[in-house]
Amino acid sequence: MKHYSTILIALLVLCPAALRAQHSDTLTCGFDHSIQWSQLATPSLLMSTGTIISFTPSLHNKIDLGVRDWVLRDGHNRFEIENTLQYIPISSVVLLKACGLESRHNWRDMVCLGAGSALITILLSNLGKYTYRVERPYSGVFNSFPSGHTTTAFFGAEMLRREYGEEYPGIAVAGYAIATGVGVMRVYNNRHWVSDVLAGAGLGILSTSLMYWLAPYLRF
Fold first, then answer.
1. Cα separations (Å) of 210 from 1, 90, 159, 172?
2. pLDDT tens, 137-185?
């Protein structure tokens, strides 16, 4: 997907520069990267709920079709701001660091964590899209599940939370609010089903979490 490629290319371009700036084989910070099983609850719930709704005909008809028909019942103009909005959370991770705000990791580690998270996001999202081939609300396109825009937004929001949320909880809340707005706009603009958005949100959070947990075992 084009927007996924944009994220990945940008991060992979930055990563070598960050690696040259700091000569270390592993994460230089002393933060705990161990798996917190409780953190799997939210992404698991979102992904399982979205999957059940999407692949249970009665629920799909009642929830996905019901919400789509409710949104479109009176007609409305599309405001596809989510095409840009999806990048705000991940962009904020870099911009806040550049402005001098203290993050959880240094530049080198943060860029590599972002690149790895983006790669996992791309692989898992496209695996879902081209394995299940769910038709979008507008007929004829079969790559609806999960929502790529929503996955991108929540992958960035989760990284924003992990880097700044402990010291600046308002930043984490803002990131998740923006990501939620992206999901809402995908449904509002008739680009995705509710189930696509739920699954995408969970997948985005999970992708970033996986990279943070794998990081200590990788040599960047």
1. 21, 16, 11, 18
2. 987 899 999 999 999 999 999 999 999 999 999 999 999 999 999 999 9
For residues 29 and 55, give the distance between their C-alpha atoms in angstroms, rounded to a whole number.
Answer: 43
Q: Which of 122, 150, 151 is nearest to 2 (CA)?
A: 122
- Residue 187, CA atoms < 13 Å, CB-side half-sphere: 20
C-alpha separations of 157 from 15, 182, 185 in Å: 20, 11, 16
SS3 for 83-144 is HHHCCHHHHHHHHHHHCCCCCCCCHHHHHHHHHHHHHHHHHHHHHHHHHHCCCCCCCCCCCC
